[in-house]
Amino acid sequence: MSSAGPDFSALLARRTQRMQRSAIREILKVTEDPQIISFAGGLPNPSTFPVADVAESAAKVLREAGPTALQYSTTEGYRPLREFIARRYWEKRQLRVDPDEILITNGSQQGLDLLGKVLLDAGDQVLLERPAYLGAIQAFSAYEPQFTSVTLQDDGPDLAELEAALDQRKPKIFYAVPNFQNPSGLSYSAAKREAVGRLCAARSVVLVEDDPYAELRFRGEHLPTLKHHCPQGVLLGSFSKIVAPGLRMGWICAPRQLMDLMVTAKQGVDLHSNYFSQRVVHQHLVDHDLDAHIAMVRGLYGRQRDAMVAAIKRHFPASVKSSEPDGGMFLWVQLPEGVSVAALFKAAIARKVAFVPGAAFYVDVADDRHLRLNFSNSDEARIDEGMRRLGEAIRELQAG
User: Fold this and answer.
1) Which of 31, 149, 179, 278 is most buried as measured by Cβ atoms within 10 A of its Cβ?
2) Is 131's pLDDT higher than 90?
3) Using an 8 Å Cβ cutoff, are 354 and 209 in contact?
4) Which helix H or strand E contains 342, and what residues bound it?
5) Any idea where the domains of the chain sit in the sequence?
6) Looking at domain 52-287, does it have CATH number 3.40.640.10?
């Protein structure tokens, strides 16, 4: 009798054919070489992590609520944490959100998966920005939708394209990142926010607003959420960029009917997000000045962004175009005609520099001219040296 076991390829669900490994996670394997200067990961700078403060908060939670904090809890999440999030939306964004409309998730990525689970059947339409956040493409792909994308201009989506796509494709979801978008770094203008909200509010579509970067604005004025203009929209948030990503603590704000379904779906996945982490995060937020911490992060990222923009101008050919965001963690670079990103990636790795090719962020067009650069996880000296090496590689490819 054979002990080889079953042929799993014959047993796999159809949806696995749509599931792809994250291009970014695969590239990060290459960057494990300590000699590599990596601009590939979307990583917050570890120097900003409040290690001592979190340790203090964890000890306090264990000392004052140990058995309770280590017990099972409700799926919706620790209510004082949800109340903190709702209160902050009002104080900082003038957006009224009821704590009962907030579900604590394992990072905002889980929120995307829950939305796919409760909204999408195979063949349903999902509308994305072009380019689009890779994590959203991954999360929704498991539910076998059909993707369409709308061009992202300097101030937000092309409104004519968006209206046509909404009316002709009739998507169930329009997924948007209006603040310092990953990968492009671009943000919606106030006028585009109002127009997008109005277009979606008038149609049977779920506007999903992913907003992990809004508080990382280091230039300009904060602008209203899309949810201001489309109250039935869904809003995702995260502590990954403003406290620490390893806590895996995010949330989703949604209308009650949708919230009830996501709570049920989450119960089938993990019962509830890490309750101890929720208690620690809340204790940290209560005992420490989050605004002062965010101001420190903004200052650091603003300097790193300025360093990368200046280094690109100094080292890249003038024919290379780059976004110059007012916040967030990323720059989006367009190469000149005749220079392939795929070829540049190989040349860059040979020079011990890594980035993410833009092709990973497209669902319905081929792209070989764009790349994403992360500036938040490198000091200014490494940024300058990395841009120098990339500039050399681009010039070499231009020369043939």
Assistant:
1) 179
2) yes
3) no
4) helix 341-350
5) 15-49+292-398, 52-287
6) yes
pLDDT digits (tens, 9 = 90+) for 247-301: 999 999 999 999 999 999 999 999 999 999 999 999 999 999 999 999 999 999 9
Q: Would you state the structure tokens that stand for residue 288, as one six-digit string?
A: 């420490």
Token digits of residue 353:
């520099």
Q: Which residues pair with 105 in a beta bridge?
A: 250
Q: How many CB atoms lie within 10 A of CB 31?
A: 18
- Report the phi/psi class of residue 170: left, alpha or beta, with left for phi > 0 and alpha for psi in -120 to 50: left
Alpha helices in 70-143 (DSSP H): 79-93, 107-119, 134-141
Picking from 89, 94, 93, 308, the residue whose alpha carbon sits closest to that of residue 185 is 308
Locus of tokens 């990103």? 341
Q: What is d(CA 224, CA 387) in angstroms, rounded to the nearest whole number?
A: 34
Alpha-carbon distance of 322 to 333, in angstroms, equals 4
Closest CA to 39 of 368, 329, 298: 329
Domain 15-49+292-398, CATH among 3.30.505.50, 3.90.1150.10, 3.40.30.10, 3.30.565.10: 3.90.1150.10
Name the amino acid, one letter, at 166: L
The whole-model pTM stands at 0.93
* pLDDT at residue 68, rounded to an integer: 97
Instruction: Return phi, psi of residue 371, to 5°.
Output: -145, 150
Longest dimension (CA), the chain: 71
